[in-house]
Amino acid sequence: MPRIPSLGLTLVLVLLAPIGVFAAMIAADRHFGALGPDRSYVVRLELPPAGGQTGLPKIEGPLDASRPLVVIDAGHGGHDPGAGAGRLHEKDLTLALARALRDRLLAGGGVRVAMTRDDDRYLLLEERSGIARRLQADLFVSIHADSAGASEARGATVYTLSARGSSQEAERLAATENRADTVNGVVLGKGDSDVDAILVDLSQRQAEARAAELARLILREGEGRITFRERPLQSAAFVVLKSPDTPSVLFEAGYISNAEDAARLASREGREAFADATARAIRVWLARQSAAAP
Fold first, then answer.
1. Is the full-model pTM beyond 0.70?
2. Per the structure, how many domains does the chain have?
3. Which of 24, 104, 119, 137 would bridge with 275, disulfide CB 3.0–4.6 Å?
4. Is residue 184 a part of any domain in this protein?
5. Taking the alpha carbons of 133, 61, 142, 81 in that order, is the dihedral positive or negative?
6. Residue 129 within a domain
């Protein structure tokens, strides 16, 4: 017959049990909550300083401030990798394409260039276009690589701003890109409520028309060198394109989910074809804008 513990022993066990549980919780927290050697479970969000703005990037090219300025935006970055296919991530692909375009523009001379990011950092969507506005850029080009469930989807698309997308897919893509400013359902970016809505609308319409001209030039200069979609020119309500006074285009250079597109864009030849065609279109566009200026 088992022995029945004495009343004193029972009271001791009752008093010590909570202490033991508490000690076990502390030990577990120290063991499992400590930083691992690779710090892989830590999520870091790069946010702008409170009440401040992100720093402006370096402007490369001629020192003459009267020369046209093109701001190139490599989509995604930092904790936001964008679309991905295996080891290839959109944020890395877009940065390589942006650098290739910058180098091609600078090699031709006469054009100043700034990059919203030249490393693996995260920027809010409104910060990206905001950099172009603060630098008083003549043009803003945002580079991305699309992804689709169907691997046969392929080809490049040039987007300009519209209040409503030109297709359901354009609306879907705009909504996906716009969510890059949201973390756990909290919107990080805020609009500029000080700008008069009517003036902004008029200015955006003018910038939109000029951006549409560049989009057509990209299609012309890329013919035979860049594989475009069946409908290569579209419009959508991308946040990154909503600068009220800077002509802006979003260039989806291809589908990272398509093996052929991904291989082409990741290759030196593919980057050179992209940079050459886009740079030529930009130069023609800038020349036309200069000729039309009063």
1. yes
2. 1
3. 104
4. yes
5. negative
6. yes
